[in-house]
Structures are given as structure tokens and as C-alpha cells.
Design brief:
Number of domains: 1
Shape: globular
Bound molecules: zinc ion
Strand order of the largest sheet: 6-5-7-8-11-10
Largest sheet: 6 strands, mixed
CATH topology: Rossmann fold
Order of helices and strands: EEEEHHHEHEEHEEHEE
Distance between the termini: 54 Å
Helix content: 10-25%
Length: 249
Amino acid sequence: MLNVTVRPVECVSTCKICNAQAPLYGVTDFQKSCEEARGHYLPLTGVPIYYHRCNECGLVFTRAFDDWSKADYVQHIYNDEYVLIDPDYVDARPASNAAFILDFVKKGKDLKCLDYGGGNGKLAGLLRKDGLDAHSWDPMDAADAPPPSDSFDFVSAFEVLEHTPEPVATVREALGLLGPRGVLLFSTLTIDHVPPRGMDHWYIAPRNGHITIYTRRALDTLFAQEGFRVHHFNDNLHMALNNDPDWLS
Ligand SMILES: [Zn+2]
């Protein structure tokens, strides 16, 4: 039995983005992972994780880990077994994201880039090999390095926002790293239409640390509160900006 302590559950919570009422949406085992979509199932732990869904913006979120420290996350989620339930994390995703970024910023000159939530730093390393001034910083980094004091022309945040228990604070931190006319490019799967009790959706996966799942409206609301607008390239890839930089035209 996994020794995980989670918060007691409220029937109706408050949306972490728009503060509207968010009734209970469903429950799943702590061990549910995204790899179930590929037919890989971990043994269940008996630890129930409840999710709420906002009546207004549609945000699906759990408060189960709201009291966790960074050490709790490292022990129970981002541990040695994490690679088993997110195998693309190591190489495949950084390589494809690097190719995309190189194309995305190709009109820019000497752009200072940061990969926010960059984990192992692989993506920034690949970008540096191709001549970009690329840096990496991860709020969950075990070394506990403080966030960079510099500002950046371009910040990427791939598969980050679904991992935060505090979407407002995380987005504020990421946007705070942008210089004037900076651009945040980020991925997180938006699910605009979920059925009642749709907990079988592969992306709602506590073992992967997927604890906040957005709709496009939830993202729009979240970034508007910070003075930014969001462009949705598709359900997974988005861009936030306030003033368009020349290199993006
Ligand atoms: Zn909401």
C-alpha cells in the first residue's frame, strides 16, 4: 500500500482560476497514468484521488496534493519510476520540441530563450547546439535553484501547466520571466468537452502529476487575468503574448 497523504475532499470546491463553484467531478486511483492509453496498467494503490470541475470555465482539478511539499512530489510522483509512465520525457519529446522551436523562432535574432519546467535540461541543450541562447529552469528541480533573475524574449513551457496545483502562481511566475514583447509558447492538452464523470480520459492521470486540466476558456481566463491573450494553435499547443514582437510576424 502506497503511503500517500492527501487532503480531505469537499463536495464543492472553488475554481483555482475563476473562483466559481466547482463540484466534484469524479475519482480515480492515484496510480492511474497516461500510459494506460498505450495498454500499460500499474497496480492500483487504493488511494482515491478526487477531481472537481468548474461550473464556469470547465477547469478539472484535484486539491488532493495542495498541501504537498516539493519533497512529497519528488518522492511519490517525480521519482525513479516516473520514466515508466512518461517514457517520452527522456528523449523523444525534447527532440521534437527542439525542432519545433527552431522553426518557430527562425525570424528572431539573438533571442534569449528559457525552457520553463525544463526538467533534465535536454531541450535547452539541443537548442544551444543549434546556436540559440537557450537556458533551462525547473521549479521542481531537486537542486532547488532559484528562478533566473534575467528576462527572456521567448519562454517555452512544454507539458508544465497540467502539473501545477497552483495555476495562477505558476503562470504568473512564467510570464514574469518574459521581457517586453516576450512570448510564452506552451503545451498542455485542453479538453473542452468532457462527459459527466469522464474520469476515463487518458490525460486525467494523477500518477503523471496531471492535477490541473484546462479548457481553452480556462486558459483564456487565466492569462487574461495577467494581461495576456492566448492563441490556440490546436488543442495542445498555445501561445501567450501581449504585444506582438517583430520576429513573430
Ligand atoms: Zn473556473
